[in-house]
Amino acid sequence: MDKSYTHKEFEKRFTKTADVIKYVAELEAFNLSDFTDEQLEKIIDKYFYVIPYVDTKILAGHKLYRARLNINNTPFEKVSDIAAPQKEHIIEHGRANKIGERIFYCASNARLALFEVIQNLKYKLNPELEVASLTIGEWRLKADLHIACIIHSPILHQLRKDILDAYNDTQKLIINGSLQEDVVNANNLLCQFFSEQFTKDNIKSSHDYKISAFYASRLRTSNSLIAEQYKSSRFDGLNYPSVAMNYKGDNQALFIQSVEEKLELINTIEVLCGNIDFKNGTFTYGVLHEAEKIENGIITWKKEFYKPKAI
């Protein structure tokens, strides 16, 4: 087979740079509440035949954290209550999920997981006086996670050297791939558009998440196109910087099948959070109790108070 012909055919699949600029401007001008997921998907598919992703790995042994506000200040006793909710309870779009789509949202460290969950308290009458009671789960990776990463937003390049370095490394790979300049530019502009959907902070309603939710949902759907013998290439979810923490840490949105296969819950902790500064992303916390054991989906809490140590 003529390799040059194959290469040209591959490049033809990409939307031209001028068209990407035009289509992105149209999408950014949409009132997303006027569109259903199906309508939006048809438009994006018409505009962009190829949806680009950048991948990375989170290595086995790494720990991830997920928190939930306690009900009546009582820690949860069922693992199912701190895991991803069932689809019938998912009635709004999230940053990485459509209505009815289960996603396991978690964070790369415990403080970030806590701060993400206490965001709703900022709408209280005196949010700085609020004290939040939470249960936080600590999960350990049994295997590497293959994930898409959000790295093309200019604001991230200004704030995070690690993300800028990852972006520059990606550019070297693309350029060394001998792609036409227009293809590289179009790819970068489209990646930037989707990255900015994940990093935007002016969220007025859950409709504003529809494009980022599409991006995550399309990634999950693409896994079904990968043959079983290449299943290690399937994606387990996405990694994106925390908007709540002013992009200083990373959140993960993981697909449920991957969570069931690759994560294990190793501990749960009851925490109180206070002195919350939502603008600067700071708060103080105190650990009350941790799990004595977790068996058959039931959490048994230690009766004695937790001895202070960092989480």
Helix content: 25-40%
Strand order of the largest sheet: 1-5-6-7-3
Compute the number of helices: 9
Please tally the β strands and state the result: 10
Query: Helix/strand-derived class?
Result: alpha+beta
- As residue ranges, the low-confidence spans are 1-5
Rough shape? globular
Distance between the termini: 57 Å
Roughly what fraction of the amino acids lie in strands? Answer: 15-25%
User: On the 0-100 scale, what is the average pLDDT?
Assistant: 92
- Count of individual domains: 1
Main β sheet profile: 5 strands, mixed
Rg, rounded, reads 21 Å
Order of H and E elements: HHHEEEHEEHHHHEEHEEE
Question: Can you offer a commentary on this structure?
Answer:
This protein is an alpha+beta fold. It has one domain. The protein contains nine helices and ten strands. Strands 1-5-6-7-3 form a five-stranded mixed beta sheet, with helices on both faces. A five-stranded antiparallel beta sheet has the order 2-4-8-9-10. The longest helix has 19 residues.
Write the layout of secondary structure elements.
Elements lengths: L2 H10 L4 H13 L7 H11 L7 E4 L4 E7 L33 E5 L2 H8 L14 E10 L3 E5 L4 H6 L1 H16 L4 H19 L10 H14 L13 E5 L8 E6 H7 E15 L4 E14 L2 E4 L10
Parallel strand pairs: 5-6
Antiparallel strand pairs: 1-5, 2-4, 3-7, 4-8, 6-7, 8-9, 9-10
